[in-house]
Fold these 3 entries.
Entry 1:
Amino acid sequence: MHTASFLRRVFLGFTVASFVKYNTAIFEELFNDTYDYFANYSDSYEGLENFTPLPQTSSEEYIPPDGDFCDISGLTTEYGLTPVGCNVTCLSGNYSLLEDGKLCINYTEEEAQQLKDFTNLTCPLGVCLDGICENCDRSIWCWKKPVMSIGVPN
């Protein structure tokens, strides 16, 4: 065997061995980190509300004593779902009015239905008074979702 050929084989052998040893060390480090992560993993979601606060919601919807389901059209605002107007309609065909002092969007239901879905708008804010959404000379960012029906606010 020639000396040059022998030296090439020795050099190549050392290079491959070093490469394998280096990659094995990296793999073991990654494997240990992954193992440590899963060994210490917990399904506890305690404290996550500090990172992803959920809006305060109520699962209770207003259901009158006769059991009829009632709703009102609403738009999404920084205050959550805000009713359009102050008239509540029920499946039976009956209607009622929101309490005085409730925030409302001062649009008719027809005007609100014509708004383009998911488009930020400036909407006139009002307050319900005797079943009428009285403009309070303030505006609020709002947008319409394809389904506008919301439960009656408590």
Note: The beta strands are 70-77, 80-83, 87-90, 95-97, 103-105, 121-129, 132-143, 149-151.
Entry 2:
Amino acid sequence: MVLDFSHIRWLDDKGRVKPPLSLYIVLAFLARSWCIFAMSLTQTGQRDALVKLFYPEKTDFISGLIAGSIAVVVFFLITFERRGKPTFLIPLFQRIKWGLFVTLIAEAFLIYGKLSYLKFQFSWQNGLEVLGLFWCGLFIFKSQHLEYYVKNWTLDRE
């Protein structure tokens, strides 16, 4: 019988499962419109130029904000989980994988719309977005660390 202690690095000093670093990367990818929006708020005179650098079409930016809003909610749920309060958010937190899945589907529809508008011509930006979506989907569905993390916040933990 071999004991496997490889998952012990997932625990913090209180014995709770820490959020995976890859989860933050996935959230940043899915909420990239919100990240660009936050960066544009820090620029006083060049807000439009920064947004147009990443999103030449205003409709792409607005639809990216709408699609990424669930990822922002998931980020705040993770923040509340680390604090352990309020406990009424526990059922919502335990469904963050479904929220990430819905965001992934919304992003896939946005990329499909962008590709169909371009008549499916290849561009590196769209190729990297599709690759990022594929990687995010693999992480959401196959990560054992994420599975343990989502199941860890329960009422009896407090």
Note: The chain has eight helices and no strands.
Entry 3:
Amino acid sequence: MQKKLTLRLENKLIESEIAPVTKSLIGIIKSNQVDESDYKKHLEEKYL
């Protein structure tokens, strides 16, 4: 027997603000062109 689950969110949760950390990350991503090579360089500098 299959049952369907329905997810219901309160309107205040849907309309809530984005967390400050998330906002800053979105801002960083929008303002910079970061590609895979930049990420690999970051990892090398951090761990090697």
Note: The mean pLDDT is 83.
